[in-house]
From TrEMBL, chain A:
<feature type="domain" description="ABC transporter">
    <location>
        <begin position="5"/>
        <end position="236"/>
    </location>
</feature>
<dbReference type="InterPro" id="IPR003593">
    <property type="entry name" value="AAA+_ATPase"/>
</dbReference>
<dbReference type="InterPro" id="IPR027417">
    <property type="entry name" value="P-loop_NTPase"/>
</dbReference>
<dbReference type="InterPro" id="IPR003439">
    <property type="entry name" value="ABC_transporter-like_ATP-bd"/>
</dbReference>
<keyword id="KW-0547">Nucleotide-binding</keyword>
<dbReference type="Pfam" id="PF00005">
    <property type="entry name" value="ABC_tran"/>
</dbReference>
<keyword id="KW-0067">ATP-binding</keyword>
<dbReference type="GO" id="GO:0005524">
    <property type="term" value="F:ATP binding"/>
</dbReference>
<dbReference type="InterPro" id="IPR017871">
    <property type="entry name" value="ABC_transporter-like_CS"/>
</dbReference>
UniProtKB/TrEMBL annotation, chain B:
<feature type="transmembrane region" description="Helical">
    <location>
        <begin position="145"/>
        <end position="178"/>
    </location>
</feature>
<feature type="transmembrane region" description="Helical">
    <location>
        <begin position="44"/>
        <end position="63"/>
    </location>
</feature>
<keyword id="KW-0812">Transmembrane</keyword>
<keyword id="KW-1003">Cell membrane</keyword>
<feature type="domain" description="ABC transmembrane type-1">
    <location>
        <begin position="97"/>
        <end position="277"/>
    </location>
</feature>
<keyword id="KW-0472">Membrane</keyword>
<feature type="transmembrane region" description="Helical">
    <location>
        <begin position="227"/>
        <end position="248"/>
    </location>
</feature>
<keyword id="KW-1133">Transmembrane helix</keyword>
<keyword id="KW-0813">Transport</keyword>
């Protein structure tokens, strides 16, 4: 099977006035079609740097980032990015916010606009289309941000802690919504999070990163039956707690080594 | 239905025993009470403001008429208003008022426009921004009206020189304020555009400009005041027409009633222009 996204011997150096620091060291990673993987790790392990590279916002100092086997040289319509917060534009209506990606990629047609309206309706946002972001709750706004990301029909979604700014209840609801939507549309996804439970509940593989320099410490496969169940119920599945403790130990071990 | 309403938990404590229509009427009453109180407070403030003004004018008038103050220098209100009335009727006033208003409006609009364009240019090119930085600091710290004589030599003693004096005051401050507004835009909003493959031009058009639009509009308010400074100083220096010229003329022939009359007109015109800009601002911002 061909990987959607592939990192080959990627290294990245951050340069400041004082020094040059190695942020990412010899990273090898493949993400396969339809897969949902999570990156967890302590702060400073380069999670966001990795996502920025996959999104084409950052070119690695060394090594290759390949999208469908082609080197990434800039943002690509195949890749969608969802940020920590919704970052909706306060001066645009909800519909207009959801259409911004299509506008920027100059691919806004009446047909695609209808698709976006359907997406909004499907997420219970049908009545909000002419409202402004300030009139919506945090959970609704993040759902709009999800629609905005899906509107350009990317094959690969990069999710940079998209649930971290939400309250617990909203977060659980949104996890289910995102996991189901992505599964239904057969998207591939890379999620960065510091919530271990969330990582296990939504993904197929959990990758633990170690910091300074950022590198892969260990990869955990999530068992079939946890994968199959909705994120909310995954937390009650047999083996969930054991896996949680396993990964927890691994995280503690990587932090102690520093 | 009614029984169900009564069971509605906490709400039963204060209004649950009321029927829906009664509850509506009760809420309406509270709202009207609140509005009456607000209205009353507004009336008190307005009354106080008016009485301060009237007392001031009255004392001034009495002090002038009874010669407690030197009428030649301080004049008194009715004399000033008679002067304004006379000049209006004779038609002598209009060219002066018209000239000053035109100069202020042109200086103000042009200053905002040029300042904003300069800010865009500097945002566009970080290199240019770094190069121009010390020049901007020097020019901004300098009292620009000191350039007046140079403008007169360059542009002659009239409209152009006065507008240039106004521009020298308004442009740089607009550039600095607008440029800092550009830089205060949340970088994450920019990131949204960049993840969709947006160019620098897209970033400016879809994020930077709309996000700083309120800041640009509020520099308009600052610029109105600045433009008046520029125009009056400019007219002091060169003009043969305008309210600034009337002040200088009144001063030279020792007609302080004329000086004060011009001041009153400037105060009225400046306030009017400011209110107009506030109105425009509210319209532009509310549209969003």
């Amino acid at each position: 099977m061909n990987a959607v996204m592939e990192l080959k011997g990627v290294e990245h150096v951050y340069v400041s006035d004082r020094e040059a620091t190695l942020a990412i060291a010899s990273m090898n990673l493949s993400v396969y079609p339809g897969e949902f993987i999570s990156l967890v790790g302590p702060s400073g392990c380069g999670k966001t740097t990795l996502l920025s590279m996959m999104a084409g916002l950052l070119i690695p100092s060394k090594g290759q980032v390949l999208l469908h086997g082609r080197p990434v040289s800039g943002p690509d319509a195949e890749v969608g990015y969802m940020l920590q917060q919704d970052y909706l534009f306060p001066w645009r209506t909800i519909l207009s916010n959801a259409l911004i990606g299509l506008e920027l990629q100059k691919s806004l047609t009446e047909e695609r606009k209808q698709t976006v309206i359907h997406l909004l309706e499907g997420m219970g946002l049908g009545a909000t289309m002419d409202l402004y972001p300030s009139q919506l709750s945090g959970g609704m706004r993040q759902r709009v941000a999800l629609v905005r990301t899906l509107a350009t029909e990317p094959q690969l979604l990069l999710l940079d802690e998209p649930f971290s700014a939400l309250d617990y209840q909203t977060k659980l609801q949104l996890e289910d919504l995102v996991a189901e939507t992505l599964k239904a549309q057969r998207k591939t996804a890379v999620l960065v999070t510091h919530d271990l439970g969330e990582a296990i509940a939504v993904s197929d593989r959990v990758i633990v990163l170690a910091s300074s320099p950022g590198r892969i410490a260990k990869t955990f496969e999530v068992p079939e039956h946890i994968r199959e169940s909705q994120p909310f119920y995954a937390r009650e599945q047999e083996g969930f707690n054991e896996l949680f403790h396993h990964i927890w130990k691994e995280l503690e071990a990587t932090e102690r080594k520093e | 239905m009614n029984a169900h309403m009564n069971k509605a938990g906490a709400s039963a404590e204060y209004s649950g025993h009321l029927r829906p229509e009664e509850k509506q009427a009760w809420l309406k009453m509270i709202h009207q009470q609140h509005r009456r109180q607000l209205k009353k407070k507004r009336r008190i403030v307005l009354t106080t403001q008016m009485s301060i003004l009237l007392t001031f004018l009255l004392i001034w008038e009495i002090a002038g008429r009874f010669k407690w103050i030197d009428v030649l220098i301080f004049s008194y209100p009715t004399k000033i208003f008679m002067q304004i009335g006379k000049d209006m009727l004779s038609g002598e006033l209009w060219p002066h008022l018209w000239m000053t208003l035109t100069e202020t409006a042109v200086g103000f609009l042009l200053g905002t426009l040029v300042g904003t364009l300069l800010a865009i240019l500097i945002w566009w090119s970080p290199f240019l921004s770094k190069v121009l930085d010390p020049y901007m600091v020097v020019f901004n710290s300098m009292p620009k009206v000191a350039l007046g004589p140079i403008f007169i030599v360059l542009f002659g003693g009239g409209f152009t020189a006065i507008v240039m004096t106004t521009l020298s005051i308004t442009v740089i401050i607009t550039t600095l304020v607008v440029n800092s507004a550009f830089h205060e835009v949340d970088p994450n909003l920019v990131k949204v555009v960049r993840t969709f493959g947006g160019s620098r031009r897209d970033v400016f058009r879809s994020v930077i400009f709309p996000a700083s639009f309120p800041a640009i509009v509020s520099t308009l308010k600052v610029n109105v005041g600045m433009a008046w400074v520029g125009v009056i100083v400019g007219e002091f220096l060169v003009a043969k027409v305008g309210l600034g010229y009337l002040i200088i003329y009144g001063f030279q022939v020792f007609n302080f009633t004329l000086v004060l009359a011009s001041l009153v007109l400037i105060a009225l015109a400046a306030t009017g222009m400011y209110q107009f800009v506030v109105y425009i601002e509210r319209k532009l911002i509310r549209e969003r």
